[in-house]
Amino acid sequence: MSHLNHSYANVLGVKVSAINMQSAVDLVERSISTGNQGHICVTGVHGVMEAQRDPNLRRILNEALLNAPDGMPMSWVGHFQGLLEMDRVFGPDFMAALCQLSITHGYSHFLYGGKPGVAEELRQALQLRFPGINIVGTYTPPFRDLTQEEEADLLAQVSRAQPHIMWIGLSTPKQERFMARYSNKFQVPILAGVGAAFDYHTGRIRDCAPWIKRAGLQWLHRLLQDPARLWRRYLINNPLFVYSITLQLSGLRSYPIAMQHINPEKLTVGVEAKSHE
Question: Which residues, other chains included, contact 232 with Cβ-Cβ below 8 Å and sequence gap of 6+?
Fold first, then answer.
């Protein structure tokens, strides 16, 4: 895997691509046309804070083709570091933009993730929204690592389908570990981990008004929808992030970028609640 040339912000030692929606789509188009295979992450505060606890996750994010800024705080840090063109790339919107592009460019898609029935429901929703879209396969994974037989079956399905983009709809950090482990095995040009996009596009999660997103308050909108599951993520992670990024931006603490090689065979996807980002 080689890297696409673009600038990035250093957010607590995580490389967050200094891109916006248009440049993200353009970079994916360029990557597919040049055969630049790899994985794409979409990272906000939750992913950055998980990476503080897990050095392997931090390296997975830092070795991505793109690590898109999914959340206004990522963009605000980038602006502080002089990256003024950097803007939020919301996972569901990123997915929709590439689905639209695929109509004219002939890209095909494979949908991996979700609870039983969600991937097929997503296929129908995308076909309704983007007439002519070519979705060549879906796969609902079990609530655990794949067995050897299941892995062989999945690899065979993807090999037959030969998609241009494989969308991974799992939770963070499960989807990032999955992409790092399987990217070379699939030989698919683009693996993109988009977390909650599967649930957004099938109506399981309600979207919020644009002004709420621009104000950096979408986390509150999500929390109010699912407080029992999300309260720890937001009410613990968010204050820790504010504290840590204040130390970094004030120069009181440095967070170097880690780029050590990962052995994908040593990664386990992990058994965790199969809920989305």
Answer: none
